[in-house]
Amino acid sequence: MKVGRFVALIVPKSLLSTPEFNKTREIMSKYRIEKICDYGEKAFKIKIETISFIINTTLSKSEMVNNKVKIESYITKSTKHLPQQYICCTKYPYWLIYRNDFLDKVSEKLIFNIFTTFRDRQITKKLLRENGKYRVLKSRNIDNLKIVKRNGHDKYVDDIKNLNIRKILNKKNYILIPNLTYFPRACFLPRNCITDGSVAIAILRNGYHITKDDLAYYSSNEFREFYRVARNLSSRTMNIDSNSIFFFGKQK
Q: Are the C-beta atoms of residues 183 and 133 closer than 8 Å to each other?
């Protein structure tokens, strides 16, 4: 962008949303974005989601005010033009290239940014046992407001003193959400349970309170459709991280 009038790249779709690209998006937003093309998984034979973008670095901020970005999608098989200030709006933690009236309407009903998040990176198969002191919950154990047993799937550990996940043990009002899914659901952390990396642990920020009704909303059709749009219709770029946890809001 320092040396070219026009810059065009094909990049991982994670550029749109993940925390490691926060600074990149901030810099890109200062220039005119001419086009974003979402290829989904269709660009390469390997299973990776990609986008391409074209940036015009020659225009001043005053010339960019009314800029509309051409959004071409291989997922929806459609092309549309949306204001750059609309899809790169700083009220949200990242770019929303599929933002629409439905997302805006649901957003008006929610209080956002009520959670921080933590996810285990240490528990591996070699640590797991068929029986033990602490149950290790996986995403398939998480249902709407409850934990379900999966025959042949449930695992345990005896010793967690060297695991970071020990800090969540028996914490009240910690919320469990499956990490990689378009069908969010949530429940409270049960006693004597920990989680592996397939589960995101949502931790309330100071001053916020959450109820069972709030958690049940995450399994509603309305929230699930909202969440698909908020995640840019991704299929693999779906980790719940410090950016995407923002959208698990509380109804006003």
A: no
Per-residue pLDDT for 10 more than 90?
Answer: yes
What is the C-alpha separation between 183 and 178, in angstroms, rounded? 9
- How many Cα atoms occupy the beta-carbon half-sphere of 102 within 13 Å? 11
Are residues 98 and 82 in contact, defined by beta-carbon separation less than 8 angstroms?
no
For the chain, the distance separating the N- and C-terminal CA atoms, rounded to the nearest angstrom, is 42
Tokens describing residue 117 = 């998040």
pLDDT tens sequence across 85-107: 999 999 999 999 999 999 999 99
The domain ranges of the chain are: 6-97, 115-251
> What CATH number is given for 115-251 in this structure?
3.90.220.20
Which residues are within 8 A (CB) of 107 and not within 5 positions of it... i.e. 6 or more apart? 226
Residue 48's identity, in one-letter code, is I
Token duo for residue 69: 């970005």
Look up residue 35 and give its amino acid: K
Provide the token pair at 138: 């996986």
Whether 78 shows a pLDDT value over 80: the answer reads: yes
3-state percent breakdown (helix, strand, coil) of the chain, nearest 5: 25, 30, 50
Which helix (H) or strand (E) covers residue 52, if one does?
Answer: strand 50-56
Cβ–Cβ under 8 Å, residues 96 and 229: yes
Give the integer Cα–Cα distance in Å for 244 and 117: 10
Phi and psi (nearest 5°) for 229? -70, -40
Q: What is the DSSP letter of 2?
A: -
